[in-house]
Design goal:
- The chain is an alpha/beta fold.
- The protein has a domain of 81 residues.
- 34% of the residues lie in helices and 18% in strands.
- The protein contains four helices and five strands, in the order H-H-E-H-H-E-E-E-E.
- It has a five-stranded mixed beta sheet.
- The N and C termini lie far apart (80 Å).
- The relative contact order is 0.13.
């Protein structure tokens, strides 16, 4: 008997048994519950409201000991949202003694400066500024 004959004769009745059998495995690509549009919108809003940091900005924040807190993040995000509403692309965001340069469309902080770096008072490649 050939392999094809075995397959044709017993394919319907052959079921792997034991651990790892197909019946024990979860369905691939199928959600365990029906997703709801409201849940998707909630997750989407949460993701859209997050600020990203470039590697350069993370390095500057750490090396310059700039205090990053949820309160400061909320203020910066409110500035980004205001700038986005006005059509800004690259902006200076001033918060107390800290300045951030941000890409508004991607909601990404590009770099950060504290009071010591603000002595130059020159900012290039920005199209707007906001005080938060």
């Amino acid at each position: 008997m050939s392999i094809q004959d075995l397959y044709r004769a017993g394919s319907a009745s052959i079921q792997p048994a034991g651990p790892g059998s197909l019946s024990d495995r979860p369905a691939i690509g199928k959600a365990s519950s029906t997703p709801h549009p409201e849940e998707f919108q909630k997750v989407l809003r949460q993701e859209e409201s997050k600020i990203s940091m470039s590697q350069h900005a993370e390095t500057r924040i750490r090396s310059r000991d700039i205090p990053w807190s949820p309160a400061l993040e909320k203020r910066v995000m409110s500035g980004i949202e205001a700038l986005d509403a006005k059509g800004s692309r690259e902006a200076l965001i001033l918060a107390d003694d800290v300045a951030f340069i941000a890409n508004i469309r991607s909601k990404t902080i590009v770099t950060a400066m504290d009071r010591a770096q603000l002595k130059e008072r020159v900012f290039t490649n920005i199209d707007s500024a906001v005080l938060v």
